[in-house]
């Protein structure tokens, strides 16, 4: 196992963490699992592809992807999830799966089923002596991803909106009685999670320069796994779970004997952690009143 493998694992873990943050924030505040979140990544990737095709301006493409994903996240929350605010978890889950397939089908109708190449940046590398080579995209992903996660943590803990999010996650009714606009906070949560998904789509395209209607399926599932490993509803837990899963994946892929079983090992890790700690590594123990 080389130092390059560790850096690549941290970079991939940063991508999973950004996606997992969207899952865990929505669950922590709205108490629902948004399984369409992975497809927001796919929409962001197509937004980048379309902008680059028309104008070939990477910075503008990133901005467009963020705006499109935020708008989509807000619309999905308002039209699909808000009417089900008091419904059973099963109804919300089925709706989320339906939204996921709807987004994939629309993307397939517009762009086709085949993968489309997306060149966000040149695959440049940096050589550190004679023993290590690191791609520029990996360094950018790790640096920017870390900055975003730190910034989000500070925002939630220090800002007025962040404290309102914490209040809604703890007790929605009490927060509403204290004057917190619960609907606005949930909408902002979806907007922030969708923006993170747009950034994750950029980083994903930097590693795998192609997009397809099912682009977000596997990263979304793995990011959800990371959120559960860290403790669903816990922001630090989502970060920890993402980094841990990214490291495990890259380390397994670097070992030829177990590389074909990487995905199975990742999900086995989820099972093992939940057997020891059902709420995840940093998840809160829920005390039931009798």
Key features of this structure:
single chain, 290 residues, mainly alpha, ABC transporter involved in vitamin B12 uptake, BtuC, two-stranded antiparallel sheet
What does this structure look like?
There is one protein chain. The chain has 290 residues and is mostly helical. Helix 2 packs antiparallel against helix 3, helix 2 crosses helix 9 and helix 9 packs across helix 10. It has one domain: Orthogonal Bundle (ABC transporter involved in vitamin B12 uptake, BtuC), CATH 1.10.3470. It contains eleven helices and four strands. Helices cover 72% and strands 4% of the residues. The strands form two sheets. It has a two-stranded antiparallel sheet. Strands 2-3 form a two-stranded antiparallel sheet. Strand 2 and strand 3 form a beta hairpin.
List strands and helices in order, with pairings.
Elements: H1 3-30, H2 37-54, H3 58-81, H4 89-111, E1 116-117, E2 125-128, E3 132-135, H5 136-158, H6 160-170, H7 172-177, H8 182-207, E4 210-211, H9 217-230, H10 235-254, H11 262-276
Antiparallel strand pairs: 1-4, 2-3
Helix pairs in contact: 1-5, 1-8, 1-9, 1-10, 2-3, 2-4, 2-8, 2-9, 3-8, 5-6, 6-8, 9-10, 9-11, 10-11
The biggest sheet amounts to:
2 strands, antiparallel
Radius of gyration of CA atoms, rounded to a whole number? 19 Å
- What sort of overall outline do the alpha carbons produce when their principal axes are compared? globular
SS elements, strand count: 4
In total, the number of domains comes to 1
Uncertain ranges: none
CATH topology: ABC transporter involved in vitamin B12 uptake, BtuC
End-to-end Cα distance: 51 Å
Mean pLDDT: 88
The CATH class is identified as: Mainly Alpha
Q: What letter string, H or E per element, gives the SSE order? A: HHHHEEEHHHHEHHH
CATH architecture: Orthogonal Bundle
Instruction: Return the structural class.
Output: mainly alpha
* Strand order, largest beta sheet: 1-4
- Proportion of strand residues: under 5%
| Tally of helical runs | 11
How much helix, percentage-wise, in residues? Answer: over 70%
């Amino acid at each position: 196992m080389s130092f390059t493998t560790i850096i690549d694992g941290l970079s991939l873990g940063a991508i999973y963490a950004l996606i997992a943050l969207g899952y865990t924030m929505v669950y922590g505040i709205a108490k629902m699992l948004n399984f369409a979140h992975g497809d927001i990544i796919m929409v962001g990737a197509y937004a980048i592809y379309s902008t680059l095709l028309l104008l070939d301006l990477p910075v503008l493409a990133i901005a467009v992807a963020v705006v499109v994903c935020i708008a989509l996240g807000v619309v999905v929350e308002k039209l699909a999830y808000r009417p089900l605010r008091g419904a059973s978890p099963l109804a919300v889950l089925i709706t989320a799966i339906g939204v996921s397939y709807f987004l994939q089908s629309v993307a397939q109708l517009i762009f086709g089923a085949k993968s489309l190449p997306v060149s966000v940046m040149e695959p440049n590398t940096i050589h550190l002596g004679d023993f290590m080579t690191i791609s520029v995209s990996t360094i950018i992903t790790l640096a920017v991803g870390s900055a975003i996660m730190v910034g989000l943590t500070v925002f939630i803990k220090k800002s007025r909106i962040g404290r309102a999010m914490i209040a809604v996650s703890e007790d929605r009714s009490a927060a509403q009685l204290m004057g917190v606009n619960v609907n606005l906070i949930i909408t902002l949560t979806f907007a922030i999670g969708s923006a993170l998904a747009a950034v994750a789509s950029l980083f994903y395209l930097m590693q795998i320069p192609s997009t397809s209607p099912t682009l977000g399926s596997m990263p979304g599932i793995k990011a959800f796994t990371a959120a559960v490993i860290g403790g669903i509803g816990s922001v630090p837990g989502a970060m920890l779970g993402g980094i841990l899963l990214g490291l495990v994946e890259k380390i397994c892929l670097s070992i030829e004997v177990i590389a074909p079983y990487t995905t199975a090992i990742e999900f086995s890790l989820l099972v093992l952690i939940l057997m020891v700690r059902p709420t995840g590594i940093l998840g809160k123990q829920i005390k039931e009143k009798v």
